[in-house]
Specification:
9-stranded antiparallel beta sheet, single chain, about 350 residues, 4-stranded antiparallel beta sheet
Length: about 350
Amino acid sequence: MTMTIRRNRMYTDLLRGTYRTIWGNWGLNPAIRPGAVGIIDPDSGDFKLVADCLPGVEISKNQQSRKWDFKSTGVTCKSINANVGGTILDPSTGAEVKPEAALEWTFDKENSMTSEFAIAGEHAISNLTVLDDQYDWLLEQARKMNMATSAGISEGFGVVTSVIYASSGLNAVAKKSKASFTVAGSASGLNRLLGEQGISGKGKASYVFTSNSSEVETHTLPARSGEVATDPLPIAYTFSSYAGGRVLIPSWVGKVGVLNLLVNSKASAFTTYTTKVTLSYKTPTGPVEDSRTVIGGSSASFGEIPLTATEMVLTAEFINIGSNTRKSIKWNTPASQWLGGTRTVNLTGTWPSAPDMTEVSN
Protein backbone atom coordinates (compact mmCIF):
# COMPACT_ATOMS: atom_id res chain seq x y z
CA MET A 1 0.00 0.00 0.00
CA THR A 2 2.81 2.44 0.73
CA MET A 3 3.39 3.04 -2.97
CA THR A 4 -0.24 3.98 -3.65
CA ILE A 5 -0.33 6.17 -0.57
CA ARG A 6 2.35 8.52 -1.83
CA ARG A 7 0.95 8.36 -5.35
CA ASN A 8 -2.44 9.75 -4.28
CA ARG A 9 -0.77 12.78 -2.75
CA MET A 10 1.42 13.35 -5.82
CA TYR A 11 -1.58 12.89 -8.12
CA THR A 12 -3.62 15.41 -6.11
CA ASP A 13 -0.77 17.94 -6.31
CA LEU A 14 -0.59 17.45 -10.10
CA LEU A 15 -4.34 18.07 -10.47
CA ARG A 16 -4.33 21.11 -8.18
CA GLY A 17 -2.22 23.02 -10.67
CA THR A 18 -5.55 23.31 -12.52
CA TYR A 19 -8.31 22.43 -10.02
CA ARG A 20 -7.52 24.12 -6.69
CA THR A 21 -10.13 22.29 -4.59
CA ILE A 22 -9.82 18.73 -5.91
CA TRP A 23 -8.54 15.44 -4.49
CA GLY A 24 -7.21 12.77 -6.84
CA ASN A 25 -8.31 9.12 -6.83
CA TRP A 26 -5.12 7.57 -8.21
CA GLY A 27 -6.09 3.93 -7.66
CA LEU A 28 -9.64 4.42 -9.05
CA ASN A 29 -11.16 3.46 -5.67
CA PRO A 30 -14.86 2.84 -6.46
CA ALA A 31 -15.98 3.62 -2.87
CA ILE A 32 -15.56 7.33 -3.60
CA ARG A 33 -18.98 8.60 -4.63
CA PRO A 34 -21.11 11.66 -3.82
CA GLY A 35 -22.43 11.41 -0.27
CA ALA A 36 -19.79 8.90 0.85
CA VAL A 37 -18.69 9.58 4.43
CA GLY A 38 -15.06 9.06 5.30
CA ILE A 39 -11.65 10.31 6.33
CA ILE A 40 -8.97 11.85 4.13
CA ASP A 41 -5.38 11.54 5.31
CA PRO A 42 -3.96 14.84 4.00
CA ASP A 43 -0.37 13.52 3.99
CA SER A 44 -1.11 10.52 1.77
CA GLY A 45 -4.22 11.84 0.01
CA ASP A 46 -5.92 8.51 0.75
CA PHE A 47 -9.66 8.24 1.41
CA LYS A 48 -10.97 5.77 3.99
CA LEU A 49 -14.67 4.94 3.71
CA VAL A 50 -16.68 5.08 6.96
CA ALA A 51 -20.28 4.98 5.65
CA ASP A 52 -21.61 4.47 2.11
CA CYS A 53 -23.87 7.50 2.11
CA LEU A 54 -24.99 10.36 4.30
CA PRO A 55 -28.74 10.03 5.00
CA GLY A 56 -30.96 12.38 2.98
CA VAL A 57 -28.49 13.04 0.17
CA GLU A 58 -29.82 13.88 -3.31
CA ILE A 59 -27.46 13.52 -6.27
CA SER A 60 -27.47 15.59 -9.45
CA LYS A 61 -25.78 14.08 -12.50
CA ASN A 62 -24.17 16.18 -15.18
CA GLN A 63 -23.26 13.98 -18.15
CA GLN A 64 -20.53 15.46 -20.28
CA SER A 65 -17.97 14.31 -22.79
CA ARG A 66 -14.51 15.77 -22.58
CA LYS A 67 -10.88 14.77 -22.45
CA TRP A 68 -8.97 14.64 -19.18
CA ASP A 69 -5.23 14.96 -19.65
CA PHE A 70 -2.67 15.70 -16.93
CA LYS A 71 1.03 14.99 -17.28
CA SER A 72 4.12 15.68 -15.22
CA THR A 73 6.83 17.52 -17.11
CA GLY A 74 8.96 15.10 -19.11
CA VAL A 75 6.13 12.70 -19.96
CA THR A 76 5.50 12.22 -23.69
CA CYS A 77 3.08 10.09 -25.71
CA LYS A 78 3.47 9.17 -29.38
CA SER A 79 1.92 6.80 -31.93
CA ILE A 80 4.05 3.79 -32.86
CA ASN A 81 3.64 0.73 -35.06
CA ALA A 82 1.33 -1.83 -33.52
CA ASN A 83 3.74 -4.74 -33.56
CA VAL A 84 2.50 -6.21 -30.29
CA GLY A 85 1.28 -9.70 -29.63
CA GLY A 86 -2.27 -10.51 -28.63
CA THR A 87 -5.67 -9.83 -30.09
CA ILE A 88 -8.49 -7.46 -29.22
CA LEU A 89 -12.22 -7.78 -29.60
CA ASP A 90 -13.62 -5.59 -32.34
CA PRO A 91 -16.62 -4.14 -30.46
CA SER A 92 -18.64 -3.59 -33.64
CA THR A 93 -18.38 -7.22 -34.87
CA GLY A 94 -17.30 -9.15 -31.76
CA ALA A 95 -14.53 -10.74 -33.81
CA GLU A 96 -10.96 -11.05 -32.55
CA VAL A 97 -8.59 -8.85 -34.52
CA LYS A 98 -4.95 -7.86 -34.32
CA PRO A 99 -4.29 -4.36 -32.97
CA GLU A 100 -3.75 -1.79 -35.74
CA ALA A 101 -2.56 1.15 -33.65
CA ALA A 102 -0.44 1.69 -30.57
CA LEU A 103 0.54 4.53 -28.25
CA GLU A 104 3.79 4.64 -26.31
CA TRP A 105 4.38 6.74 -23.22
CA THR A 106 7.88 7.59 -22.01
CA PHE A 107 8.76 9.08 -18.63
CA ASP A 108 11.96 11.07 -18.12
CA LYS A 109 11.99 10.87 -14.34
CA GLU A 110 11.04 8.41 -11.62
CA ASN A 111 7.60 9.24 -10.10
CA SER A 112 6.52 11.31 -13.11
CA MET A 113 2.91 10.50 -13.99
CA THR A 114 0.22 10.76 -16.61
CA SER A 115 -3.56 10.72 -16.19
CA GLU A 116 -5.59 10.43 -19.40
CA PHE A 117 -9.28 9.59 -19.48
CA ALA A 118 -12.52 10.03 -21.37
CA ILE A 119 -14.77 11.85 -18.90
CA ALA A 120 -18.29 10.47 -18.52
CA GLY A 121 -19.62 13.25 -16.29
CA GLU A 122 -19.73 14.78 -12.84
CA HIS A 123 -22.07 13.73 -10.03
CA ALA A 124 -22.60 16.03 -7.06
CA ILE A 125 -24.67 16.41 -3.91
CA SER A 126 -27.42 18.81 -4.97
CA ASN A 127 -28.50 19.72 -1.43
CA LEU A 128 -25.35 20.65 0.53
CA THR A 129 -27.52 21.86 3.43
CA VAL A 130 -28.00 18.16 4.22
CA LEU A 131 -24.54 18.24 5.87
CA ASP A 132 -25.81 20.70 8.45
CA ASP A 133 -29.13 18.83 8.82
CA GLN A 134 -27.25 15.59 9.52
CA TYR A 135 -24.49 17.10 11.71
CA ASP A 136 -25.43 15.04 14.79
CA TRP A 137 -25.39 11.81 12.76
CA LEU A 138 -22.01 12.74 11.28
CA LEU A 139 -20.63 13.60 14.73
CA GLU A 140 -21.68 10.17 16.01
CA GLN A 141 -19.82 8.45 13.12
CA ALA A 142 -16.78 10.67 13.67
CA ARG A 143 -16.66 9.76 17.39
CA LYS A 144 -16.61 6.05 16.55
CA MET A 145 -13.52 6.71 14.38
CA ASN A 146 -11.82 8.94 17.00
CA MET A 147 -12.27 11.88 14.61
CA ALA A 148 -14.09 14.17 17.04
CA THR A 149 -13.33 16.19 20.19
CA SER A 150 -15.58 17.95 22.70
CA ALA A 151 -15.66 20.86 20.23
CA GLY A 152 -17.08 18.72 17.42
CA ILE A 153 -15.99 16.93 14.24
CA SER A 154 -12.25 17.02 13.52
CA GLU A 155 -10.73 18.17 10.24
CA GLY A 156 -10.35 15.39 7.69
CA PHE A 157 -13.62 13.67 8.60
CA GLY A 158 -16.42 14.57 6.22
CA VAL A 159 -18.39 13.94 3.07
CA VAL A 160 -17.53 13.53 -0.62
CA THR A 161 -19.50 16.34 -2.29
CA SER A 162 -18.77 15.85 -6.00
CA VAL A 163 -17.06 13.21 -8.15
CA ILE A 164 -15.63 13.29 -11.69
CA TYR A 165 -16.26 9.95 -13.44
CA ALA A 166 -14.38 8.51 -16.41
CA SER A 167 -15.69 5.95 -18.88
CA SER A 168 -12.20 4.76 -19.88
CA GLY A 169 -8.53 5.70 -19.67
CA LEU A 170 -5.50 5.23 -17.47
CA ASN A 171 -3.25 6.50 -14.70
CA ALA A 172 0.42 5.60 -15.05
CA VAL A 173 3.51 6.45 -13.01
CA ALA A 174 7.17 5.69 -13.65
CA LYS A 175 8.93 3.49 -11.09
CA LYS A 176 12.28 4.50 -12.61
CA SER A 177 13.64 7.14 -14.97
CA LYS A 178 13.33 6.54 -18.74
CA ALA A 179 10.46 4.12 -18.17
CA SER A 180 7.95 3.44 -20.93
CA PHE A 181 4.78 1.47 -21.64
CA THR A 182 2.46 0.83 -24.57
CA VAL A 183 -1.27 0.47 -25.21
CA ALA A 184 -2.43 -1.13 -28.49
CA GLY A 185 -5.86 -1.42 -30.04
CA SER A 186 -7.95 -0.20 -32.93
CA ALA A 187 -7.38 3.41 -33.97
CA SER A 188 -10.96 4.39 -33.14
CA GLY A 189 -10.77 2.41 -29.93
CA LEU A 190 -7.67 4.23 -28.73
CA ASN A 191 -9.30 7.55 -29.53
CA ARG A 192 -12.25 6.55 -27.38
CA LEU A 193 -10.07 5.22 -24.59
CA LEU A 194 -8.43 8.61 -24.10
CA GLY A 195 -11.33 10.81 -25.06
CA GLU A 196 -10.09 12.12 -28.38
CA GLN A 197 -13.33 11.68 -30.33
CA GLY A 198 -16.03 13.60 -28.56
CA ILE A 199 -15.70 10.59 -26.33
CA SER A 200 -18.16 8.42 -24.51
CA GLY A 201 -21.31 6.78 -25.79
CA LYS A 202 -19.98 6.07 -29.28
CA GLY A 203 -19.44 2.36 -28.96
CA LYS A 204 -16.98 0.56 -26.73
CA ALA A 205 -13.47 -0.64 -27.32
CA SER A 206 -10.99 -3.03 -25.79
CA TYR A 207 -7.24 -2.68 -25.63
CA VAL A 208 -4.03 -4.60 -25.07
CA PHE A 209 -1.94 -3.07 -22.30
CA THR A 210 1.68 -4.09 -22.73
CA SER A 211 2.71 -2.25 -19.62
CA ASN A 212 6.17 -3.04 -18.31
CA SER A 213 5.20 -3.62 -14.69
CA SER A 214 8.76 -3.38 -13.41
CA GLU A 215 9.02 0.13 -14.88
CA VAL A 216 5.48 1.51 -14.68
CA GLU A 217 2.56 1.20 -12.25
CA THR A 218 -0.80 1.61 -13.99
CA HIS A 219 -4.47 1.82 -13.05
CA THR A 220 -6.54 1.29 -16.16
CA LEU A 221 -10.20 1.34 -17.14
CA PRO A 222 -11.00 -1.31 -18.37
CA ALA A 223 -8.99 -3.00 -15.63
CA ARG A 224 -7.62 -5.87 -17.70
CA SER A 225 -6.20 -6.27 -21.17
CA GLY A 226 -8.76 -7.22 -23.79
CA GLU A 227 -11.79 -6.35 -21.66
CA VAL A 228 -14.41 -3.71 -22.27
CA ALA A 229 -15.03 -1.13 -19.52
CA THR A 230 -18.51 -1.44 -18.05
CA ASP A 231 -19.15 1.13 -15.31
CA PRO A 232 -17.49 4.56 -15.11
CA LEU A 233 -15.02 4.96 -12.24
CA PRO A 234 -14.20 7.99 -10.06
CA ILE A 235 -10.92 9.74 -10.88
CA ALA A 236 -11.19 12.88 -8.73
CA TYR A 237 -13.52 14.43 -6.16
CA THR A 238 -14.22 17.31 -3.79
CA PHE A 239 -14.70 16.95 -0.04
CA SER A 240 -16.30 18.92 2.80
CA SER A 241 -15.05 18.74 6.38
CA TYR A 242 -15.47 20.69 9.60
CA ALA A 243 -13.36 23.21 11.46
CA GLY A 244 -14.03 21.85 14.93
CA GLY A 245 -17.55 22.68 16.04
CA ARG A 246 -20.15 23.18 13.34
CA VAL A 247 -18.22 25.45 10.98
CA LEU A 248 -18.39 23.73 7.59
CA ILE A 249 -15.34 23.89 5.31
CA PRO A 250 -17.12 23.34 1.96
CA SER A 251 -13.90 22.78 -0.01
CA TRP A 252 -11.49 21.06 2.37
CA VAL A 253 -8.07 20.83 0.72
CA GLY A 254 -5.91 19.82 3.70
CA LYS A 255 -5.32 20.47 7.37
CA VAL A 256 -6.06 24.08 8.21
CA GLY A 257 -5.54 24.11 12.01
CA VAL A 258 -5.68 27.90 12.35
CA LEU A 259 -6.49 30.81 10.04
CA ASN A 260 -3.84 33.21 8.77
CA LEU A 261 -4.37 36.66 7.28
CA LEU A 262 -1.58 38.56 5.52
CA VAL A 263 -1.91 42.31 4.99
CA ASN A 264 0.57 43.29 2.31
CA SER A 265 1.56 46.70 0.95
CA LYS A 266 4.35 45.27 -1.23
CA ALA A 267 2.04 44.32 -4.13
CA SER A 268 2.77 47.65 -5.79
CA ALA A 269 6.14 49.40 -5.58
CA PHE A 270 4.30 52.69 -5.30
CA THR A 271 2.35 52.13 -2.08
CA THR A 272 3.40 55.06 0.09
CA TYR A 273 0.69 55.19 2.73
CA THR A 274 1.20 54.26 6.35
CA THR A 275 -1.87 52.28 7.37
CA LYS A 276 -3.33 51.24 10.70
CA VAL A 277 -5.04 47.88 10.24
CA THR A 278 -7.41 46.45 12.83
CA LEU A 279 -8.78 42.91 12.80
CA SER A 280 -11.81 42.11 14.96
CA TYR A 281 -13.85 38.92 15.23
CA LYS A 282 -16.06 36.92 17.57
CA THR A 283 -15.16 33.56 19.11
CA PRO A 284 -17.09 31.20 21.43
CA THR A 285 -14.98 32.56 24.32
CA GLY A 286 -15.49 36.24 23.48
CA PRO A 287 -14.57 39.00 21.01
CA VAL A 288 -11.00 39.61 19.84
CA GLU A 289 -9.42 42.78 18.44
CA ASP A 290 -5.87 43.21 17.18
CA SER A 291 -4.19 46.19 15.50
CA ARG A 292 -0.94 46.68 13.51
CA THR A 293 0.69 49.57 11.70
CA VAL A 294 1.86 48.82 8.17
CA ILE A 295 4.25 51.29 6.54
CA GLY A 296 4.44 51.46 2.73
CA GLY A 297 6.39 48.55 1.25
CA SER A 298 6.03 46.29 4.31
CA SER A 299 3.48 43.73 5.49
CA ALA A 300 1.85 42.44 8.65
CA SER A 301 0.29 39.11 9.41
CA PHE A 302 -2.42 38.01 11.80
CA GLY A 303 -1.79 34.35 12.64
CA GLU A 304 -3.22 31.78 15.02
CA ILE A 305 -6.79 32.94 14.37
CA PRO A 306 -9.12 30.15 15.60
CA LEU A 307 -11.24 28.29 13.03
CA THR A 308 -14.30 29.18 15.12
CA ALA A 309 -13.83 32.93 14.37
CA THR A 310 -16.99 34.59 12.97
CA GLU A 311 -18.13 38.06 11.93
CA MET A 312 -14.58 39.05 11.11
CA VAL A 313 -13.86 42.61 9.99
CA LEU A 314 -10.55 43.99 8.74
CA THR A 315 -10.44 47.78 8.82
CA ALA A 316 -7.64 49.81 7.24
CA GLU A 317 -7.12 53.44 8.19
CA PHE A 318 -4.82 55.12 5.68
CA ILE A 319 -3.02 57.98 7.45
CA ASN A 320 -3.51 61.22 5.51
CA ILE A 321 -2.92 64.93 5.86
CA GLY A 322 -6.43 66.02 6.81
CA SER A 323 -9.02 63.30 7.36
CA ASN A 324 -7.91 59.64 7.15
CA THR A 325 -9.40 57.25 4.57
CA ARG A 326 -11.03 54.14 6.03
CA LYS A 327 -11.80 50.90 4.17
CA SER A 328 -13.04 47.58 5.51
CA ILE A 329 -13.68 43.98 4.42
CA LYS A 330 -15.96 41.56 6.24
CA TRP A 331 -16.04 37.73 6.35
CA ASN A 332 -18.88 36.01 8.22
CA THR A 333 -17.16 32.61 8.58
CA PRO A 334 -13.59 32.82 7.25
CA ALA A 335 -12.99 29.08 7.87
CA SER A 336 -15.65 28.40 5.23
CA GLN A 337 -14.59 31.18 2.88
CA TRP A 338 -10.77 31.05 2.84
CA LEU A 339 -9.47 28.13 0.78
CA GLY A 340 -6.79 26.36 2.84
CA GLY A 341 -7.39 28.75 5.76
CA THR A 342 -5.29 31.63 4.41
CA ARG A 343 -6.13 34.97 2.83
CA THR A 344 -4.09 37.93 1.57
CA VAL A 345 -5.25 41.55 1.46
CA ASN A 346 -3.24 44.08 -0.56
CA LEU A 347 -2.94 47.74 0.37
CA THR A 348 -2.29 50.06 -2.58
CA GLY A 349 -2.12 53.78 -3.28
CA THR A 350 0.41 56.55 -3.80
CA TRP A 351 -0.26 59.74 -1.86
CA PRO A 352 -2.19 61.92 -2.61
CA SER A 353 -4.28 59.63 -4.85
CA ALA A 354 -6.96 57.45 -3.25
CA PRO A 355 -5.66 54.38 -1.40
CA ASP A 356 -7.38 51.01 -1.68
CA MET A 357 -7.60 47.63 0.01
CA THR A 358 -8.24 44.54 -2.14
CA GLU A 359 -8.76 40.93 -1.21
CA VAL A 360 -6.67 38.45 -3.19
CA SER A 361 -8.85 35.43 -3.88
CA ASN A 362 -6.79 32.26 -3.54
